[in-house]
Design goal:
- The structure is a single chain.
- 37% of the residues lie in helices and 21% in strands.
- A hairpin with a 2-residue loop joins strand 1 and strand 2.
- The two termini are 20 Å apart.
- By secondary structure, it is an alpha/beta fold.
- The protein folds into 2 domains: 100 residues, Enolase-like, N-terminal domain (Enolase-like, domain 1, 2-Layer Sandwich), CATH 3.30.390; 213 residues, Alpha-Beta Barrel (TIM Barrel), CATH 3.20.20.120.
- The strands form 3 sheets. The protein has a 7-stranded parallel beta sheet.
- The structure holds magnesium ion.
- Magnesium ion binds next to loops.
């Protein structure tokens, strides 16, 4: 049996520039990968490389092109060095395998990793991401998100001074119901002393967790911050240091899992299972991907039993997309496509 891999580059503008620790992003560029083989269903996957999290664009393209000419595409791509390329190949294979088994990608992943499909939910809880801005703007955005059904809010911290962060977070905490979970992401901006001060100030506000308060490689620093009233999540640490070291250092209560940075949907569900077994609860987030990888991430989250709110409601950050979005966001949840496979039709690769 011969299988063919088609690679289509894409470029999509963001609805508005997104500031990150590595500068401002104005567009997402990546690749749609389609694997077709004889009479079997074809499968589609997406590589959306993001510097700082995955290989650069050119390395991703090179890895995909060499996979396309290899006898065994999966083995020819190294998830450790080219996770975005590996993600696309693994996703396309998942899409095909799930379609061949006539089940959704979520059911397929759940069965492969946890042994049985069990009761895969029809929707997954998601957080609303509240952008920066003044206290008033932040409170308005937070209450609007809660009014539209979100019960988990994610606030960014670390770009202004600590005092202004604390004032903003406290204002949101006081403006919304105590049942609303609030998580804070500092993207590694603080040093140990600042983080310790932050935790002392934030602990009385009953937060869900504080994500990546310290630089990615400071695992012992994160370990020291645990148990002081605010659970600690790591995100950047996973991409730069790895899970074994995080678990070994007791550095986290929560692990943020980005399938694009981990190297594929199945690898991500397997890592989530490993994390759970180590007492670390997983959260799944996109890397601001187009519709194929975003929907794949929804299946990944749905495959994890009783997953806590995930960072999957990111479609609105893009100006356009590669096809219709099969996932809808309502009442703080995203729907999980229930048809066979991943369930995305792209308009760019209609062959
Ligand atoms: Mg983060």
């Amino acid at each position: 049996m011969t299988s063919q891999i088609h690679i289509d580059p894409y470029s999509i503008r963001l609805a508005s520039p997104l500031s990150t620790a590595r500068g401002s992003i104005t567009q997402r560029r990546g690749f749609l990968v389609q694997i077709a083989a004889d009479s079997e269903p074809s499968g589609i996957g997406e590589a959306a490389p993001l510097p700082g999290w995955t290989e650069p664009y050119d390395a991703c393209e090179q890895a995909l092109r060499s996979a396309a000419s290899a006898d065994d595409p999966k083995r020819s791509v190294d998830p450790a060095t080219t996770p975005a390329a590996a993600h696309a190949i693994e996703s396309a294979r998942l899409d095909r395998a799930a379609a061949a088994a006539d089940r959704s990608a979520a059911e397929h992943l759940r069965t492969e990793v946890f042994g049985s499909a069990g009761d895969v939910a029809g929707s997954v809880p998601v957080n609303a991401t509240i952008g920066g801005g003044s206290i008033d703007e932040t409170v308005r955005a937070a209450t609007a998100a809660v009014d539209s059904g979100f019960s988990c809010l994610k606030l960014k911290a670390g770009s202004d001074g600590l005092d202004s962060d604390i004032d903003r977070i406290r204002a949101v905490r006081e403006a919304v119901s105590p049942t609303v979970d609030i998580r804070i992401d500092a993207n590694g901006a603080w040093d140990r002393e600042t983080a310790a001060r932050a935790i002392d100030a934030l602990a009385p506000l009953t937060l869900e967790y504080l994500e990546q308060p310290l630089p990615a490689d400071d695992l012992s620093g994160h370990a020291e911050l645990r148990g002081r009233g605010v659970p600690i999540a790591v995100d950047e640490s996973l991409a730069s240091v790895g899970f074994a070291e995080i678990a070994e250092a007791d550095a986290a209560d929560v692990l943020v899992c980005k399938p694009m940075a981990i190297g594929g949907p199945r690898r991500t569900v397997a890592l989530a299972a490993r994390a759970r077994a180590a007492g670390i609860d997983p959260v799944v987030t996109t890397t601001i991907d187009a519709v194929v990888a975003r929907t794949t991430a929804v299946h990944v989250a749905a495959a994890i039993p009783d997953v806590r709110p995930c960072g999957l409601a990111t479609a609105s950050l893009l100006e356009t997309d590669l096809g219709p979005d099969p996932v809808t966001v309502a009442d703080g949840r995203v729907t999980v496509p229930s048809g066979a496979g991943i369930g995305v039709e792209t308009t760019e690769t209609n062959r």
